[in-house]
Amino acid sequence: MTPPSRRARNRRRIVPPPRVLLGTLLVGFFTAVLFVQTYINPKFTGDHVGSKAGDHAGVPATIRDGGPIINATGGQESTSRLPERTIALTFDDGPDPVWTPKILEVLREQDAHATFFVVGAQVARQPELTEHIVDGGHELGLHTFTHRNMQKLAPWRRELELSQNQVAIARAAGVHTNLARFPYSSKNPAIDSENWKLVKEAGALGYLVVVNDRDSRDWERPGIDEIIANATPTDGQSAIVLFHDAGGERSQTVAALREFIPRMKAQGYRFTTVTEGLNLGLAGRTDAPAAALPVNPEAPASDKWRGMALIWTVSLADGMVTAIAVLFLVVGLLTIGRTLLMLALATRNARQRRKPGWSWGPEVFEPVSVIVPAYNEKEGIEAAVRSLAGGNHPMIEVVVVDDGSTDGTADLVDRMDLPHVRVVRVPNGGKPNALNTGVALAKHDLIVMVDGDTVFEPDALHRLVQPFGDPSVGAVAGNVKVGNRETMVATWQHIEYVIGFNLDRRLYEVLNCMPTVPGAIGAFRREALAQVGGVSDETLAEDTDVTMALCRKGWRVVYVEDALAWTEAPTTLEQLYRQRYRWSYGTMQAMWKHRRSLFESGPSGRFGRVGLPFLALFGVALPMLAPVVDIMLVYGLVFWERQETVAAWLGMLALQLFTAGVAFRLDKESFKPLLRLPLQQFAYRQLMYLVLLQSATTALTGGRLRWHKLNRAGLAPRSPVPPPEEPAPMPPGQRMAPEVDTLPPSTHGRPPVRR
C-alpha cells in the first residue's frame, strides 16, 4: 500500500499549481480568440478573383443555358427565370455599416425591394443592421460565413459555411432563407464541373442557388454610367442584377442606384426580391410547387440559440482583437515616449559628468568593508575574493559570509590565506541574513555588497565609493558586465545589461528614484542601512527592497558607470528563466511592500509618485504588454497588408537598435553584439514576458519562492585579476580596525537580529 505521504506527493504532481493553471488558461484563451478571428475574418476581392473555369463535362446543358435560379433540391436539375420586365436587385458581401444603410435608404426612397446575400461573419458583427434589412421588406440570402472560395474547401467545411451563415441570420433577424450564392460565382455558362458539384451539394441541403443575369461590375468602380449600362437588361428581358454593398468603397453603387431604379421603372420594369420574382415566374407552370415559396420564413428556436452563441463568439473575438490593436498603439506610444525620455535624460547625465571640473566632491579614501554572501560558490569564489582583495583602494577588508554551503566554499577562501580577508560561517538562512551578518561584523562605515561570482576591476572599489564625497548619497550602483559572452543567450543578456545600466540607471538617477542597487556591485553608508533596518528578508529582491527604502528616507542613490564588475550570466534559457522569475517576482513584492509611499509626503512621496509608477509602467506593464507586438505582427502578416506590417515591425526594431547603439557608445562597448539583437525578438523577449506573466500569476495566487541558486561554470573574468597588493597608505588621522573573525559578543554566537 502506498504511504499517505507518497500519495500526497503524487497528487501534487498531478495537480499543477494555480499560477500554472492561470497561465495555461490565459494562453488557451488568447489562442482560441485568435483562432476564431482567423476563421471568421473575410477577405473581399473582386468577383474576377476565383478559380479558373474548368471542364464543363457533367454539367447539364439545361443548367448552363438556363435561368439564374438553379434548383438541385430533391435530385432535380432545373432552372428558372424571372418574368419579363422584372428585375431583382441583389447585393453581395454585406451588411456593411457604412454602405448598406445608404443603399437601403435609396431603395426606400424608390419603393423597391431587393435581395441581400449576406456574409455570416458580417451578420454576426452587424445583427441590428441585418434585422433592419428584413424589416424594410427585403430578402436575405446566404453568401457563406467567411466569403472563402468554396471550391478550395473540404465538403464538411462547405456545409459548415452555409449552416453557420444560416444560424447567424436566424439570431440576427429571426428568419431562415432558401437562397444561396457562392462567392466569386458568375453566370450560368461559367458553371463548370467543380461548381456544379457545389450546386448539387447546396441542393441536397435544400438551397436554391442564385447566380446573375447582369453584373454591374461596381466593384471595379468604373463610373456611374458604366455601372448603369452593365446592369440594364436588353429588349425587355428580366434580370437578376449583381451589385455589392460591402467589400470596398461603394459610393458609385449608391449613386448609380438613384438613377437606375427610376429609369427602369419608367421603361415599365418592376422590382422584386428573388423569391417573389421566382413565384411570379412559376405561376401557371406545370412544374410549379403547390404553394408559393416563402420569403425568409421564421427560423426555429434551436437555430436562434446556436446563432446567439455564434454571434457572441464573433463579438468576443472582434473585441479582443480591437483591444489588442489598442494595446499595440499604447505599447508603441509608451515605447517611443520612454525611449525619448531615456535618451534625453541619460545623455544629459553623461554630458554633465564629462564637464571639466565635475566631481562627486572630495576624493574618498575611507576604508571599505566588502560583504560577500556565498552559498555553494566554489566555482567563482576564489576569483571574486582575489579581485576584491587586490583592489587599489586603501584599506579594504573582505568578509565572506558562508551561508551554509555544502561544496566547501568557505574552505576554499580559508586556504587562500589572503590578508584582510576573513570567512564567517553561519547556518543557511538566506541571502538577506548573510548580508546583515556581514554588515554587523564589518569594521568600516562604507559597506560594499558583492555577489559570490562577481569579479571586480582593480579600480572598481575606489571608483564605486567616490560618490560618498557627497554627504547626501546613501548608496551607489556600479556597472555590471557580463563576462561570459560566448553563447547567444549570454550575448542577449550583455545587450540588456549595457542598455539597463547605461540608460535606465542614468534616467533613474536624474529622476532621483533609483529602484535597485544591484547585488553584484553596490555600496552603502552604514548609517543609511541602519535607518532602514538593514537588508530585509520580506522579498526575494532584497537589493530592490533596500534601495527603495533608502530612497523613501531621502538618501540619494546614484550610478557610477566606470566602477566595473564582471558577472557570470546564465547560459541556458532554463537557467535564465529561473533567475529572471526570481528577480521579477521579487521586484513586484518590493513594489507592493512600498505602495504606501504613493500617499506619503516628502522624499517617500516623491519616490512613490515618480519611481513606483515609472517602474510599474515601464518595468512591469510595458514588458507584459510586449506580446501584443508579436500578436499584431502575426495578425498583420495573415490578415493585413504584409508590407505595412513588416515596415512597422522594422521600425520598432530600428528604434531598439538606435537605443542600444547609444547605450553601447556611452559604455564604450563594441557594436558587434548588436548584430544579434534582431534574433532577440524571436526567443529572448518571449521568454521575458513569460517570466513576467508567471511572476504576476504567482503574486496574484499568493505563491512563494525560495532563493534559487544558479549552476555556475566558474568562467574566467574578462580582465586579468591582479594578485593582492598591500593597501595604499591611509590618509593622516585614520587607522585600520583590528581584524575579527567571529561574531560580535553582543550576538552571543548568533547572526545579528535584523533591525
TrEMBL record:
The keyword Repeat does not apply. Residues 85-272 form the NodB homology domain. InterPro entries: Glyco_hydro/deAcase_b/a-brl (IPR011330), NODB_dom (IPR002509), Nucleotide-diphossugar_trans (IPR029044). SUPFAM superfamilies: Glycoside hydrolase/deacetylase (SSF88713), Nucleotide-diphospho-sugar transferases (SSF53448). Keywords: Glycosyltransferase, Membrane, Transferase, Transmembrane, Transmembrane helix. The keyword ATP-binding does not apply. GO terms for molecular function: glycosyltransferase activity; hydrolase activity, acting on carbon-nitrogen (but not peptide) bonds. GO terms for biological process: carbohydrate metabolic process. Residues 715-755 are annotated as: Disordered. The chain crosses the membrane at residues 20-40, 320-345, 614-640, 646-666. Residues 719-732 have a biased composition (Pro residues). Belongs to the glycosyltransferase 2 family. PANTHER family: POLY-BETA-1,6-N-ACETYL-D-GLUCOSAMINE SYNTHASE. This is Bi-functional transferase/deacetylase. It comes from Actinoplanes lobatus.
